[in-house]
Amino acid sequence: MIENLKKLIKLISLFIISLSLSFSLSKAEVYKEIIVEGNERLSVETVIMFSGLNLSDDLTINDLNSSIKKLYKTNYFKDIKITPKNNILKIIIIENPIIQSIKISGIKNKNTLSKLEVLTKKSEKYPFLKNKILNQNNLLLNIVRGTGYYFAELDTKVIDNQNNSVDIVYNFNLGERAIIKKINFQGKKVFSDSKLRNIIRSEEGRFWKFITSNKYLDELKIKQDEKRLKQYYQRKGYYNVNIKSSYAKNINNKFFELNFNIDSGEKFFFNDLSIEINDNYNKENFVEINNYIKKLKGKKYSSKEVNKILDEIDQILLLREFLFLNTKYDLSVVDSNKINLKFKFEDLEKFYVEQINIFGNFITEEKVIRNSLIVDEGDAFNEVLLDKSINSIKSRAIFRKVESKIKNSKTDNQKKVIDILVEEMPTGEVYAGAGTGTSGATITAGIQEKNYLGKGIKLGTNILMSEDEIKGKFSVTNPNFKNTDRSFQTTLESTSSDFLSTGGFKTTRTGFSLGTGFEQYSDLYVNLDISAYYEKLETASTASAHKKKQEGDYLENLLRYNVTMNKLDQNYQPTQGYMVSFDQELPIYSDDLSVGNTLNLSKYHSVSDNLILSGKLFLKSVNSIDDEVRVSRRIYIPSKKLRGFEPGKIGPKDGVEYVGGNFGSAINLNSTIPNVINGFENIDLNLFFDAATLREVDYDSSLESDKIRSATGISVNWFTVIGPLSFSYAIPLSKETTDQTESFRFRIGTSF
After folding, report:
1. How far apart are CA 613 and CA 576, in angstroms?
2. Per-residue CA distances from 529 to 23, 291, 560 (Å)
3. Which of 436, 495, 437 lies closest to 464, judged by CA?
4. Which residues make beta-bridge pairs with 473?
5. Stated pTM of the model
């Protein structure tokens, strides 16, 4: 009995204490004055403003605790105390030192130094925090190592000044640049070395490669290359692929041999795929996607197909405002290489996004990152949308790393806080290349910037020089114009073309265009632009009377639109799917009222990993509304669409000049050949059949010819030590007597 009485007394005491404590926390006081002590640089008014305290409010203990948190959040203070006494609030602070200056030593390259200083300048005149300096230290070191100084070391010194400020010195010891001497692909790799080289970014260093940074060893880049290889194999059906290791062997402390050990495993195929739909959902909404997944049975497994199904299901759910559902799938392997997938819906606890914080963007403006977000503050929290947002940020290719962290709100149990951490990286690139072959020599060079002034704007400058043409181009692209998903592009260009020897004319064309582009529907892209160009057309003394009549100056304003449906499995070296594109040019105000139409169709089919069949169709027309088509706008069959014939030397001929036509068409059939030459992993073989026709001459119908030109042959793509070499041997099957044939064609090029 006595023991029970003691327990009761303890419970009552605890209740009284907690009640009094709660009362004291919620009890409001009115203060007459706020006194600030310890401030050296910050004014009293600034400290009070940071605290959020207001004498006109009734303040509780909770309010005072909240103000301490607000003050700490500014990073200006090392220690904070708030003491109430006699209706006076005293804020006692110790300020953090201010970073007076940041100096960088040991970097001689002005471009690299400039990139580092852009980061460090943003920290000057701000509070000194050890963890932030440590993060900046790692960021600077990663940037320098990314330029090839793999062994670089960084010594950071913090110098205390007398006025509660510090100077920071970053002293780099670069060492030698680590150059990749050779790249090897080993193990059960299935695909040829030449194909795998085109997937990774790292490349072998050569003495003439004095511009590219991909020749330097970069640990992060190697990790990205591993990821690219794994994604490629999984898209091709190799579900259990394992990139066992990628390592660099030091050769004389300078050159590296980079090895990718690959175990592709067995190829997997889709078996039974289904969507688990309960009575809460209308099954009619899933009829189309159900029919689609049934067709996948027996086809090779592809991670891209799985992601496509997930995207389609998520889109259906979001359109019906099922915001608190997540789509997952159970994967099981049967019969050793068949995959069953069951997609199902998972009910999510109802949370909302309270706040999205972005960290690490020392260069990039915050709005650039937020423009990539699908989820926003105040929205229902959905992990699917968050993952898509993170992938959208990554796809900009302006950050070395993008990570997210989800935290519970401190003020509301039904809300989440999302922290997004990005790591900046160099986004500029200088490139140059050269090539030569039977069709002549070319030189190209340019500068690209993907994140101009941290605004996410892309800049591009390019110059191309060949034996017949010099072309310069400058473009500015904003991928999120006015915070939308539409891009806006401005282009300035000038082209000088000299066809006096083959066509009897030369032109100089200069102008600009303004355009926009967007994805109208899934995989359906639309581009619109308006352009204004000035062209000067000159003719040779031996030119035909018709061409001499067209000599002069021309002004043209054009409206151009392009619609593209892209169902390819990948844009570079596709193996499955199709793409169709239609392009039309319409004159708005022009001295030559010509209308141009172009249709391109490509279809690919994979018989096996190394046997790819493809077919391409090219149709183009140009017709003038009021007069004859200007000679510089007439159609010539592109050389890559008709092998076996000299470029520009087929079709209608007026005297000694090839004059092109009003209608052009071409068809290309191609088949890769599995590697039949043991030990030559860098060689790809192809069989091809090309056919084309060039028809109608609007100023003289007697010149017209509807003869089909065709050729068949074999082509070889060989990755040599000096660059990719491509050559073909073609046998013309049908031609006109005026056509100039070319059985052998080669081209070799390299980048610097």
Report:
1. 9
2. 68, 38, 5
3. 495
4. 462, 493
5. 0.71
